[in-house]
Amino acid sequence: MGQVNTEDCAGELAGAFVFQSRPNHSLTRPQERLVFWSLAALCFAMATGFALMGYWLPLPFAGLEIGLLAWAFKVLRSREGDYETLKIEGDVVVLEWHCGNQGERRELNRQWARVVCNCRTPGRNCRLSLCSHGHATEVGKYLNDEARLQLAATLRSRLQE
Fold first, then answer.
1. What is the pTM of this model?
2. N or C: which terminus of the chain has fewer CB atoms within 10 Å of its end residue's CB?
């Protein structure tokens, strides 16, 4: 469905650095229903018009198309609760995320954590990870490349404090 936009929040609460990002779900539930039923009505109206002219074959395909559209909206709704949180407080870095049906939380020692940013081309197709004790954890999944690079610079400075 195109580029994933994010709504992010970076701030400091009681001396802690907190960064949270989540996918941008631009349609509200009522808007989603309006889009779905508008597309369904248009699709079935066109298929019915063809059926009245004697071309009945578009009717089952219209039903299939609307079924796939309903499935796509259901998948999008199942991802509404996705988020990613990174918190640096004292000597502890806490990574917490929820994606689909899976969620996880990791705590890293701030002294051992390091930021790794790999870009396939300069400033493009970047992957940002926090590494500690041989394990890498990807962060910034919901960010674009520019925001990911900015987060990498911020994390490097915060981890060195």
1. 0.69
2. N
pLDDT lower than 70: segments of the chain? 1-15
Q: What is the pLDDT of residue 124?
A: 83
User: Can you tell me the distance from the alpha carbon of 127 to that of 144, in angstroms, rounded to the nearest whole number?
Assistant: 10
- Residue 61 within a domain: yes
Shared domain for 88 and 146, answered yes or no, is: yes
Q: Which 3-state string (H, E, C) describes the chain?
A: CCCCCEEEEEEEECCEEEEEEEECCCCCHHHHHHHHHHHHHHHHHHHHHHHHCCCCCHHHHHHHHHHHHHHHHHHHHHCCCCEEEEEEECCEEEEEEEECCEEEEEEEECCCCEEEEEEEECCEEEEEEEEECCEEEEECCCCCHHHHHHHHHHHHHHHHC
| pLDDT given at position 25 | 83
pLDDT of residue 2: 36
Same domain, 156 and 100: yes
Q: Can you give the pLDDT at residue 14?
A: 54
